[in-house]
């Protein structure tokens, strides 16, 4: 089972992807986590990614695509996975479509003002979470990532879920959407 989570920053993709992954015994692959770990380890990928992440911009495709393609060939990814934060533009969709056949895309939507409040209220002390950067990340999302919703809808793979609810309610909706696919 190969799933993709789509949605703006702060919509709860990471939380829901983790919950579903542990429930369904699938690997959770977050490109944001992979990039943050690369930065901490001081790898070449981390060095290339850092300045983009700090500005709320997308890291160049060649960096992220290479990271994902390598990860998807590892043994533990063969039984399936949940992608969280990838693909994020149409060029990445193209790369992914050559590497894997996606079974479903789960789209969590939440309004911008609620997202800004959520992200700034997280208090996780993430460096990229100033209001200006959060708004930049939202603009990047609306311009580059939102078109992916139409792409997966056209292929009949999209499940749209209202993300402006409690974690439990969203999680139930996610399970209802993919329940038939996982067990
Ligand atoms: P996230 O944790 O998914 O919000 O990602 C944090 C940051 O990592 C983003 O703002 C981007 O700078 C970078 N990033 C994560 N995934 C991607 C991707 N698929 N393409 C480009 N940049 C990404």
Structural account:
With 183 residues, the protein is of the alpha/beta class. It has a single domain, classed as P-loop containing nucleotide triphosphate hydrolases (Rossmann fold). It contains nine helices and five strands, in the order βαβαααβαβαααβα. The protein has a five-stranded parallel sheet, sandwiched between helices. α1 (13-24) packs across α9 and α6 (112-121) crosses α7. Bound molecules: adenosine monophosphate (AMP). Adenosine monophosphate (AMP) binds at residues 9, 31-32, 35, 52-53, 56-59, 64, 85-86, 88, 92, 137.
Task: List the topology elements.
Blueprint (H helix, E strand, L loop, with lengths): L1 E5 L6 H12 L2 E4 H11 L2 H12 L5 H12 L8 E4 L5 H10 L4 E6 L2 H10 L9 H15 L1 H8 L3 E5 L4 H16 L1
Parallel strand pairs: 1-3, 1-4, 2-3, 4-5
Bound molecules: adenosine monophosphate.
Summarize the structure.
This protein has 183 residues and is of the alpha/beta class. Helices cover 58% and strands 13% of the residues.
Rg, please? 16 Å
> Quick check: average pLDDT?
93
Largest sheet: 5 strands, parallel
What's the CATH architecture name? 3-Layer(aba) Sandwich
**Approximately how much helix is present in the residues?**
55-70%
Q: Could you give the distance between the termini?
A: 10 Å
Model regions low in confidence, pLDDT < 50 over at least 5 residues: none
Shape: globular
Strand order of the largest sheet: 2-3-1-4-5
Helices, by number, come to 9
Determine the CATH topology. Rossmann fold
CATH class group: Alpha Beta
The CATH superfamily is: P-loop containing nucleotide triphosphate hydrolases
Write down how many β-strands occur, each being a DSSP E stretch of 2 or more residues: 5
Oligomer: single chain
Strand content: 5-15%
Succession of helices and strands: EHEHHHEHEHHHEH
Derived from helix and strand composition plus strand pairing, the structural class reads alpha/beta
What small ligands are held by the chains?
adenosine monophosphate
Number of domains: 1
């Amino acid at each position: 089972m190969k799933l993709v989570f789509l949605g703006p920053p702060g919509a709860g993709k990471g939380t829901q992807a983790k919950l579903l992954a542990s429930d369904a015994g699938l690997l959770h692959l977050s490109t944001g986590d992979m990039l943050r770990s690369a930065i901490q380890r001081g790898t070449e990928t981390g060095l290339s990614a850092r300045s983009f992440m700090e500005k709320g911009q997308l890291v160049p495709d060649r960096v992220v695509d290479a990271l994902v393609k390598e990860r998807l060939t590892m043994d533990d990814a063969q039984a399936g996975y949940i992608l969280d934060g990838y693909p994020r533009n149409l060029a990445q969709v193209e790369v992914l479509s050559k590497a894997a056949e996606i079974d479903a895309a789960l789209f969590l939507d939440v309004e911008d003002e609620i997202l800004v409040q959520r992200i700034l209220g997280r208090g996780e002390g993430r460096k990229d979470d100033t209001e200006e950067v959060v708004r930049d990340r939202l603009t990047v999302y609306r311009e580059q990532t939102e078109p992916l919703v139409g792409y997966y809808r056209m292929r009949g793979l999209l499940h749209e879920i209202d993300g402006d609810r409690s974690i439990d309610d969203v999680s139930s909706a996610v399970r209802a959407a993919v329940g038939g696919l996982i067990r």
